[in-house]
Predict the structure.
Amino acid sequence: MCAAKSTGGIDLGLEGRVALVTGAGAGIGREIARWLARAGCPVAVNDIDPQRATETARALLAEGARAIPVVADVRSEDQVSAMIGECRDTLGSLDIAVNNVGMNANRPLTPFVELDAAHWRDVVEQNLIATALCCVAEARAMLEQSSGGVILNVSSGETTRPSPQLVPYGAAKAGINHLTQSMAAELGPQGIRVLAMAPGTTVTEKVREVMGEDHLASIAASNPLRRMTEPEELGRMAVFLASDLARCVTGQFVLADAGAHLSRSRPDHGDA
């Protein structure tokens, strides 16, 4: 392992706990998978792209972790069910699930009055519905195991402020926040914690390519911390929220946006 499984002698309680991370072939998902593996979790690496899933799994194996690629389109109920089954059959259980898939569905910024039904369906399906389908299957598996678990949904800082020209995305991500709270209330008595983690603009390779350095610099300058979130920082946050250090925390929406919600009301369109 290239990083310790505990910090300062503190046991994180993650050693041997099986984690599934969706959309882990790149960006935020890949860093979350990497940091959970470093904390001692065997990891099922999901991506819709077989090559990307395999590359991430191989990278984790090279660091000494146990990891498997699990290819699935999480918009498909059948494929989600098969993904959960493969994770449990191969790694033995499902203890931590991180639902990271979600973006603006490759849609351009669009004024509200120009939105059509296809746009709404596309963005809502890729964010809210995909997350909900995963949550249902994950919760069923955890209830069947009768050993509790943690479900962590990746939401967005766009839910904390108006999102001009990104209305479907912000609305779908806001639905994930409500889904998280409702699940936490219903599943808490069975020992399942449910949380949402909300990045602001996160400097992934894709975001850097799409937005450009000048735009990224202007966003950073507008944040109270004068910086943006790095994917690695979200990986560390996921480890904390999944760990026993946060075992009394559920139903929460945790922002990681360098304070952007305090200062801006324009869209970032760069969470993923």
Summary: DSSP finds seven helices and nine strands in the chain. The helical segments are 27-38, 50-62, 77-91, 117-145, 167-187, 205-222, 231-242. The domain at 14-262 is CATH 3.40.50.720 (Rossmann fold). The CA atoms of residues 220 and 227 lie 4 Å apart.
